[in-house]
Specification:
The chain is an alpha+beta fold. The protein is 36% helix and 21% strand. The strands form five sheets. Strands 9, 12, 15, 16, 17, 18 and 19 form a seven-stranded mixed β-sheet that branches. The longest helix is centred in the first third of the chain and has 22 residues. It is globular.
């Protein structure tokens, strides 16, 4: 029999939700054959088996939450041998005591008499045995006598540390080490995250192999701390909330007093979103600036070339066009395509341009990344955005599809609204929120004209980006939208 356990699924991934079990008891499976489907963070993964044989037991079912290392199923391996009987063929340990007991039982009384005679014949043997004790103690006696009392006490005190736990009497406490060793292994990025959100990594319980601490473990530990802190403490705590004295947790009221309720467990995506946004909100000093862009000319171009892009397999949306605008803008303002490293007190400027696009799905918000967007034309970007959105809704996005973003777009225009304050997608430093375009009268030279205006909301990390830089960046984006030629000129 062999157990198949949940393997390592990726960096900092320790748990997943079982969405489907792909085999049944009695099935014969091969190595690398997918056996379960897991939803981890924001991706769905088919997990292949590392064992082959006949499935005899399945330990999980759809809806279960499993950790890395948990047993998924048991198989009966083909051609497996069960060696036995070797321990039974070694009766020596049982027979030995009998062999030793026999001579003891058959000792005649005369033997004791012979032993007495032997002791009389060898008088020197007995004193030698008795001298062992005095010979060890004699040097001690001589040293103690030859030593004055103060020196003797001093020597006793000097000998105390060497005796360690045998020492009698209270000892002064050892000096505290400057830095505690971590309770379990953790990657530098995990320790950095713990420092940024004010968590002592030594207090975090690791769930990985060998007690390894992941980023999710740190976030879960922070969540427990935050849940035990009162509202007044949280409002004034900022990033150092974890270091303040924890207040008693505030329980929810009993909602059943006013009617029926239903409780549903948070999905893996909703839980991960909650943890990441909580961290981003507490770790990043957010500022949001707003403006409106006249997209009347852009809308005319979009309608004119929409069918052409559709034939190529894409969808020419405002979002796709804004990806190209942002990709060009961050090359003019590199601090918007950066990350803050608090451990080294450095700003990391990224030479590549990857733009994340928030996609609304039934399971929650997913953010696939369009890579090297600065090197692609709008048609190529429109195709990739369309395909990424389809994969997100069909649960086919991988972890790699959602990694490596430099700046993010969140477009709520399809649902309405005027402005909002998007939360920066850490470790990025900026995010552009887009609301629904509206027709408004705009004064142009001598008269008011109806123009379609697009509300934009730029949130940014004030530790990296100053307000003046932010408004210059946002105005550049507005001008690029209103004057598409600017993209060709600078892109």
């Amino acid at each position: 029999m062999a157990d198949f356990k949940v393997p390592e699924l990726g960096e900092n991934i320790t748990t997943g939700d079982v969405t489907r079990v792909l085999v049944n008891v009695g099935d014969t499976i091969a190595r690398e054959q997918p056996v379960i489907e897991l939803e981890t963070d924001k991706a769905t993964i088919e997990v292949p088996s590392s064992v082959a044989g006949k499935v005899t037991d399945i330990k999980v079912r759809a809806g279960d939450k499993v950790k890395v290392g948990a047993v998924i199923l048991t198989v009966e391996e083909e051609g497996a041998e069960e060696p036995q009987a070797k321990p039974e063929e070694q009766p020596a340990p049982e027979e030995k005591p009998k062999a030793e007991e026999k001579p003891r039982a058959e000792k005649p009384r005369a033997e004791s008499a012979r032993a007495e005679e032997a002791r009389e014949e060898k008088p020197a043997a007995e004193p030698r045995e008795e001298e062992i004790g005095p010979k060890e103690e004699e040097p001690r006696e001589q040293k103690v006598v030859s030593m004055p009392r103060p020196a003797r006490a001093e020597a006793a005190r000097a000998a105390e540390p060497a005796r360690g736990p045998r020492a009698v009497g209270p000892l002064p406490p050892p000096p505290a080490p400057p830095e505690r060793e971590p309770a379990a292994p953790a990657a530098p990025s995990v320790r950095r995250l713990a420092r940024e959100i004010g968590v002592d990594v030594n207090e975090v319980q690791g769930t990985g192999p060998g007690g390894r601490i992941s980023q999710d473990d740190v976030k879960e530990h922070a969540r427990r701390i935050l849940s035990s802190v009162g509202p007044s403490t949280l409002l004034g705590a900022g990033t150092g909330a974890a270091g303040q004295p924890a207040a008693a947790p505030v329980p929810l009221p009993d909602f059943t007093r006013w009617g029926d309720i239903e409780r549903r467990p948070m999905s893996n995506i909703r839980r991960t979103t909650s943890q990441r946004l909580t961290h981003a909100w507490h770790a990043i000093p957010h500022v949001t600036q707003c403006d409106k862009a006249d997209i009347t000319a852009m809308e005319e171009l979009r309608r004119k070339y929409r069918e052409q892009v559709q034939k190529a397999g894409g969808n020419l949306t405002v979002t796709a066009m804004l990806v190209k605008v942002l990709a060009t803008a961050v090359k003019q303002f590199p601090q918007f395509n950066a990350s803050l490293d608090l451990e080294t007190e450095e700003i990391v400027f990224k030479k590549y341009v990857n733009v994340g696009v928030a996609v609304d799905t039934e399971r929650g918000l997913l953010v696939p990344v369009i890579r090297n967007a600065d090197q692609k034309n709008i048609t190529q970007i429109a195709i990739e955005v369309h395909q990424a959105a389809e994969r997100a809704r069909e649960r086919k996005l991988t972890l790699e599809d959602m990694s490596g973003g430099g700046i993010t777009i969140s477009n709520l225009g399809g649902s309405g609204g005027t402005y909002f304050t998007p939360i920066v997608n850490w470790p990025e430093v900026a995010i552009l929120g887009v609301s629904r375009g509206i027709i408004e009268p705009v004064w142009r030279s001598t008269t008011f004209e109806p123009r379609q205006l697009l509300p934009l909301s730029l949130s940014y990390d004030h530790r990296v980006i100053d307000g003046a830089d932010a408004i210059r960046f946002l105005r550049w984006v507005v001008e690029a939208i209103e004057q598409p030629f600017l993209l060709s000129l600078l892109g």
